[in-house]
Amino acid sequence: xxxxxxxxxxxxxxxxxxxxxxxxxxxxxxxxxxxxxxxxxxxxxxxxxxxxxxxxxxxxxxxxxxxxxxxxxxxxxxxxxxxxxxxxxxxxxxxxxxxxxxxxxxxxxxxxxxxxxxxxxxxxxxxxxxxxxxxxxxxxxxxxxxxxxxxxxxxxxxxxxxxxxxxxxxxxxxxxxxxxxxxxxxxxxxxxxxxxxxxxxxxxxxxxxxxxxxxxxxxxxxxxxxxxxxxxxxxxxxxxxxxxxxxxxxxxxxxxxxxxxxxxxxxxxxxxxxxxxxxxxxxxxxxxxxxxxxxxxxxxxxxxxxxxxxxxxxxxxxxxxxxxxxxxxxxxxxxxxxxxxxxxxxxxxxxxxxxxxxxxxxxxxxxxxxxxxxxxxxxxxxxxxxxxxxxxxxxxxxxxxxxxxxxxxxxxxxxxxxxxxxxxxxxxxxxxxxxxxxxxxxxxxxxxxxxxxx
Length: 454
Ligand code: KET
Fold this sequence. Notes:
Blueprint lengths: L2 H7 L5 H22 L29 H9 L6 E2 L16 H12 L14 H12 L4 H4 L3 E7 H16 L4 E6 L5 H8 L2 E6 L1 E2 L4 E2 L1 H9 L6 E5 L12 H13 L3 E6 L14 H8 L4 E6 L11 E7 L3 H19 L5 H11 L1 H32 L7 H4 L4 E3 L4 H11 L1 E2 L5 E3 L8 H14 L2
Parallel strand pairs: 1-12, 3-4, 3-7, 7-8, 8-9
Antiparallel strand pairs: 2-10, 5-6, 9-10, 11-13
Helix pairs in contact: 1-2, 4-13, 4-14, 5-13, 7-8, 7-12, 9-10, 10-11, 13-14, 14-17, 16-17
The structure holds ligand KET.
The site of ligand KET has 16 residues, from helix 7.
């Protein structure tokens, strides 16, 4: 069945049909955009050379973020620099495994009572409880009242996907509003889960700040009950967050229209260096007694990228509701991957439950956040000293792992070709990939790009 047939064949309104229709629409738009970019090497299945039943498969484009690393890896240049994916590097440009993570792993390895049995469908119980407390606060009444159900998922992405699948199946309003711009995977995750994606204004390129008026207007005109995706802190890719007063206004508006908050918390601790300060937006919404979803990732703040550790929490109004919600989350998870992996969650639980290790983690996290902040200052100072045209103050004003430079896609392509500097085509650079040693090279490249490429 092709996308058209899928659309025509699914006119009834069961949830499976609905998902098929959304998927078909998605496939149609993907294949038409692939055709526009001349990437289609299409042939009918029967005319396949060599008779492969897959001969009609078209070459898919690389992922806009992870594909940057693929291109970087192929570049033989000794001066190449990867500022694409949001992954922390040391001053020496190396990936970092936190000391506290090494310690926790050692404890786990030395504990011969540990086995490799399957975890429950919802994951490691300790990990779930501690994760909920980490984001909602150690004394959160919602946690104490058992109104929160938390399930261990495959990092932030998996948590978003499980939450979205649950909402598509069980929530009455299937539209989700995402900010413009946002992390490139958001629309794909939500569409494929069966939600329909709409957007709200967020970033104003002229001020390089928040379009707060636009945001309020768009949420005001969203249908009552719609889901709203909010970046808990360190908005990706813009590095622009609402102030606490603006968050409060967003909260009031959303609650007055019964909009359902779905927080994506991929950078807790990376914005300010403080785990508690970076959780304020979420805690504000939970403190009013209302409901919300939170997807947490330990990829960045514990450096556990490849371990795929994260959690989805659904805060409900009552404990019995939370229990039933959890029973349905299990039905979402079981056919997707059965149950989550044990190692990464055990590392996190070991650290979160030990007072000393937790403290050491906060210090290492702060050191990572501080190094990023110092990179912002160094890059800003270097561009100023160089006399590079433009106001670069947004580099020091933005928050989190990324700077949304304002460089256009031609300038990005120029910097890749001439300077072997890799970043996403929207001009986002990962400050965590930069070091004192590489700031001058990046400065040269930006200077050349803005003076030579319009
Ligand atoms: N949410 C946001 C906002 C986000 O930036 C990422 C990752 C994730 C969720 C998912 O991370 P996970 O590894 O599933 O816990 N962002 C970086 C990496 C990526 O694109 O996968 C990035 O933007 O570079």
